[in-house]
Amino acid sequence: MLGVAPLGMIFGALAIGAHLSTVAAQAMSSVIFAGSAQYIAAQLLGSGASGAVILLVVFVVNLRHALYSASLAPHLKHLKPAWKAGLAYLLTDEAYAVAITHYNRSGDGAYRHWYFLGAGLTLWSAWQASTALGILIGARIPPGWPLGFALPLTFIALLVPSLKDRASLAAAAAAGLVGLLSVGFPYKTGLLAAALIGIVAGLAVERRGA
Amino acid sequence: MKGMSGISLWLTIVIAGVLTFATRLSFIALLERIKLPAWFQRALRFVPAAVLSAIILPETASRNGALDLSLHNPQILAGCLAVLVAWRTKNVLVTILAGMAALLALQAVLGRAGL
Fold this sequence. Notes:
By secondary structure, chain A is an all-alpha fold. In chain A, 75% of the residues lie in helices and 0% in strands. Chain B is mainly α. At the A-B interface, α2, α3, α4, α5 and α6 of A face α1, α2, α3, β2 and α4 of B.
């Protein structure tokens, strides 16, 4: 849980480094509330990308949340719409990991959604507070510091433990290779091509192995 | 800041928030109404690995917007070390700290060697 605090600080500092205003940086943390998408959106805003490109990238980067949504949906089926909406707003990588582990371990009891809510609100509060701290400190971080490297590092930490079979390894390898080849593409459009080709590669290897 | 300011900046932030929320709510809200095709469900499984890898490799292997696969790019070695640490510890914070420490150390070494 405490793992999100340095990430929030890094976001706050990155956003200030990308010349976003204090209010806009904090608003991104409460309105978007999605670490990796915020990192990229802040960097794109700083480099002068258009709104349409930023929205496309945010959507693509957050597509994995649709997977979390599909995975948790059966456990939340009995809840009222307001509960579903509230929990969906809180559905970050970390909240998903905590919630799905709890559901898998202790089944679908009547009050499981309260556990999800508690974890989600804790993570939300930690994210807002650490963003504010990062904004405060951000202006004082020397420009030569490679804070941006925290983004690929975060994703390495999420990706590597999830590569448990040949099909997902193939998806990651193909997507990474295409990503490297498309570095020169404007506004990270190479990311979408790389992700799609990676997904196709994963499906192909899975089909051959089955 | 270049490019965007004022209303278009706020519109972008709000729409990005709505998009993110809609993505997270998607299947939670619709599960009872729609049945997903089998191939789509299989494809969803590969989204995280593909998207993350498609971000990691270019970010790590490029500097100042251009590919730099030489040893003069300290991010590559630091990234490899981070992969090892992530694999052994499965811990996000430890991985970030190890990767950052490695990058700072490598930068210092390269700087001293005049590279």
